[in-house]
Amino acid sequence: MIKEDIPHVLEIERLSYSNPWQSSTFEGEVDNFPISNPYVIVFKPEKRVIGYIIYWRVREEVQISNIAIHPDYRRLGIAEAVMKKILKHLQAEDMKFVILEVRPSNLSAQELYRKLGFIPLGLQKKYYKNPEEDALLMGKTL
Ligand SMILES: CC(C)(COP(=O)(O)OP(=O)(O)OC[C@H]1O[C@@H](n2cnc3c(N)ncnc32)[C@H](O)[C@@H]1OP(=O)(O)O)[C@@H](O)C(=O)NCCC(=O)NCCS
């Protein structure tokens, strides 16, 4: 992700979440490379940004902080393929754990993570706003 991608990323973010991140948050992620690793997913024929994934590396641990696919491109296996590729890359780099938070009501994302081998680790109380909800913490050993 580069700064020029952010308007396209914001459009997907707003279509994906009830409490979307602001532009400044994405700008911060881009500025925070290489601790933050923000990537866009581009549909090559149209050179269109159709999704993104952001993860942080802290020592041997990886935290996936955001992943979204444009609604027009969902259920095509894109998130699964991208995450598999990233998990393989992180494993090769000797990273040990990956964790992420997800709304308990977000069953489609949980299904994706379960399919990739993530297991539920616990709840973080009142983590999300608009609407308020706990976060389900999920993790995977690489
Ligand atoms: C979650 C999200 C990233 C999945 O992206 P995607 O590219 O559509 O997912 P994939 O097509 O790779 O799906 C892979 C698997 O995830 C699960 N899955 C994905 N969407 C699902 C849905 N709507 N219902 C049930 N399971 C779903 C399925 O197991 C699917 O495998 P299958 O198609 O063989 O059944 C996408 O729905 C999205 O952008 N949601 C809004 C943002 C969001 O919630 N992000 C996660 C925040 S924690």
Question: What report would you give on this structure?
Answer:
- This protein has 142 residues and is α+β, with helices and mostly antiparallel strands.
- The protein is built from four helices and six strands; from the N terminus they run ααβββαβαββ.
- The protein has helices spanning 6-16, 23-31, 78-92, 107-115; strands spanning 36-43, 48-58, 61-69, 97-102, 119-128, 133-141.
- Strands 1-2-3-4-6-5 form a six-stranded mixed sheet, with helices on both faces.
- The two termini are 25 Å apart.
- The protein binds coenzyme A.
- Coenzyme A is lined by residues 16, 67-69, 74-80, 102, 106, 108-109, 111-112, 115.
Biggest sheet layout: 6 strands, mixed
Q: How many distinct helices?
A: 4
Instruction: Count the E strands.
Output: 6
- Spans of at least 5 consecutive residues whose pLDDT stays below 50 are none
Rg value: 15 Å
Structural class: alpha+beta
State the distance separating the first and last CA atoms.
Answer: 25 Å
- Global mean pLDDT: 97
SSE string: HHEEEHEHEE
Strand content: 35-45%
Shape label: globular
Strands across the major sheet, in which order?
Answer: 1-2-3-4-6-5
Bound molecules: coenzyme A
Helix content: 25-40%
